[in-house]
Amino acid sequence: MRDHFESGTELFKSLPLEKREKVFDAAVAEFASKGYRNASMNSLVRAAGISKGSIFQYFRTKRNLFDAVLELAVDRVKNYLRKVRSDTGEMPFPARLGTLLRSGFSFIDKHPLLSAIYFQLLQSGDAPFGTEKILQLRRLGNEFLAEMFDEAVSRGEVRSDLDRQKTAFLVNSLMETLLRAYYTEFLDSGLGLYKGTAQNREAWIETTVAFIVSGLGNESSD
Amino acid sequence: MRDHFESGTELFKSLPLEKREKVFDAAVAEFASKGYRNASMNSLVRAAGISKGSIFQYFRTKRNLFDAVLELAVDRVKNYLRKVRSDTGEMPFPARLGTLLRSGFSFIDKHPLLSAIYFQLLQSGDAPFGTEKILQLRRLGNEFLAEMFDEAVSRGEVRSDLDRQKTAFLVNSLMETLLRAYYTEFLDSGLGLYKGTAQNREAWIETTVAFIVSGLGNESSD
DNA sequence: TTTTAGAATGACCGGGTGGTCACCGCGCGG
DNA sequence: CCGCGCGGTGACCACCCGGTCATTCTAAAA
């Protein structure tokens, strides 16, 4: 979970890196596995090997600690989106979608705990704040896809008579569901995406991109 | 929440209908608004106007009570699916999808609390049991759509070269997202589906069905 | 070696939870 | 009109929570 340590009290910032990592990683693990409400400061503190008093000296409240952890997760996701966008600028639209999904899978592999926190927030609304921040994040994701869609339209790669917001919403929902099913057992309704093989993932990417581009209808081609 | 009272202890079953309804309705409301883990027997009991001892005489544990409530929700959803299937058997595939969505919206209007319980279970995994039951329900929904897809294929209404399971999964994910966004504020990323007008809903249905049938590509028509 | 600043600690607090059980009061049979 | 059985009751239990703070420990300064 390297770097990113403007969070916490002055005392926490002054700690040796190793200890900061140990504490922060334990927090990430706790929130990832139980969500905000059911995460326990007691069990967190046990896992981190520090005393209960200390964690409240490092982050004054549970809420503060969660904010710091969430900020890291959101930053990582934003970076990943930025990178994919710039890496795929030249690709045709379908390849772009495929790369986006592939990168999503690899992000989850690299940051499973942060992914869990991010998706938990997005989906379950289990957060210490209201809906505003969640809506903001969802709009961000949708806008990202809407811009991809705009570019595809301007290049003549897709139909131009579609509502960009609604379209982005629908495509986003497919992406999100697929990525969540990749690491959430109970979402994988028996199709082997969860903990599946790389070929399996590729097959899903292909099917999904084809679905987005052509739908189910008879009369399309490519 | 009428009928359906094989649940609970003998004592509960022997209660006057009115009281059974009062208690059961309070349980539904509690679980719907807080999910399983964060639902409180204390607050439930306060809302139902009975004493704490009583609820544990009617349903021995929180878990038992939840099972009963969930069973009602699942039964209602199954009935709704059955009804839609038989009502739309003659329709062309796109109209069928549209009717399915429309009925989904109206189910949510009629049973907002049961919908909340059902979706909460499906999405957040917040349940007193393992993943098996959730997977089972998801498979049910997917199979429902897969059969619709089969019929459409056999009538030549859609392409026949698609994997039925994967396709059903993708279509299901769109349906589910749309229905959830209809009553969950933080899922409606600013598009006015949540608490929107009837025209708004119709526009979404049209867009979604068109997306499923034709995708985004240039070269399709209908 | 002694003093002392400040970090680490865990017992403790008020308030919550799911669940229990000794008691109370009401209605029915005798 | 009495007595008894059974449903209703809420104080109580053990255990958890987030958060506090008086005390202890440690290590550097004097």
Low-confidence stretches of chain A: none
- Main sheet overview of chain A: none
N→C terminal distance of chain A: 44 Å
What percent of the residues of chain A sit in helical stretches (DSSP H or I)? Answer: over 70%
Characterize the overall form of chain A: elongated
State which percent range the strand residues of chain A make up: under 5%
Mean pLDDT of chain A: 93
Biggest protein-protein interface? A-B, 58 and 58 residues
Count the DSSP helices of chain A.
Answer: 10
Based on DSSP secondary structure assignment, what is the total number of beta strands of chain A?
0
Provide the gyration radius of chain A in Å: 20 Å
Order of helices and strands of chain A: HHHHHHHHHH
Kindly name the structural category of chain A.
Answer: mainly alpha
Oligomeric form of this entry? homodimer
